[in-house]
Amino acid sequence: MPSRRNTQASRWSRLAQRAVHAGWAWAQRTGSVTAERPGRFRFGALGTGTRLAFPLGTVFGEPWIHLGAYCIVGEQVTLTAGLMPDLDLGPEPILRIGDGVVLGRGSHVIADTTVTIGSDCYVGPYVYVTSTNHSYDDPHEPIGKQWPRMEPVSIGPGCWIGTGAVILPGARIGRNVVVAAGAIVRGTVPDHAVVAGAPAKVVRRWTAEEGWQPPLRTPPPVPIPDGITPEQLLALSELEAEAEA
């Protein structure tokens, strides 16, 4: 039988745990960045309904960062414009993120020169997008001290970028492209393609003439018809579970 002292300690432990969780939830709500509550950040543009989750990653050069409307930027996402803070980068934005973009937790978007992410792109967690790469031309100089190479990056609208993918300088990704998890992308990727590997290669592509090649192995998902209520969906799932039983 537990002693009174142990019971009391357990009760205080549960209360402390609840207090920590409640405090952290309050910090997440209060620390998130929106157009209405930008805090110390002065983005060049921050659209309606866009939210940067707390805690943020590294953010600097925000006057040259334009975020569209209804974007979701996950926790610990780094967004930078320029090589370092407090530079004057000129009159034009360096990092442009379209409407409805989702950036997964822990992702990095490093825009030392122009980076564009089109509308309705979904970026998984821990994706790395950069317009800069180290150079190693001089074999006698430490690589970290050599001037980096910079090339613009563009990601078309409607893309899906899988977890842990790396988008390298000079990448030009078309619209509605799937980048597989862990892929390393450089160069040009055509519209409506699936790329995978390191370096990434096109493994499937859609054209109006041939459709998907190679053909898809599974039928397309059936969308939920208009007018179906959550209660009807729940009842349907229960019927399916009974039928399987």
Automatic annotation (TrEMBL):
Gene3D superfamilies: Hexapeptide repeat proteins. GO terms for cellular component: cytosol. Keywords: Acyltransferase, Repeat, Transferase. GO terms for molecular function: O-acyltransferase activity. InterPro entries: Hexapep, Hexapep_transf_CS, Hexapeptide_acetyltransf, Trimer_LpxA-like_sf. It holds the Pfam family Hexapep. PANTHER family: ACETYLTRANSFERASE C18B11.09C-RELATED (PTHR23416:SF23), SIALIC ACID SYNTHASE-RELATED (PTHR23416). Belongs to the transferase hexapeptide repeat family. This is Acyltransferase. It comes from Streptomyces griseoaurantiacus. The lineage of its organism: Bacteria, Bacillati, Actinomycetota, Actinomycetes, Kitasatosporales.
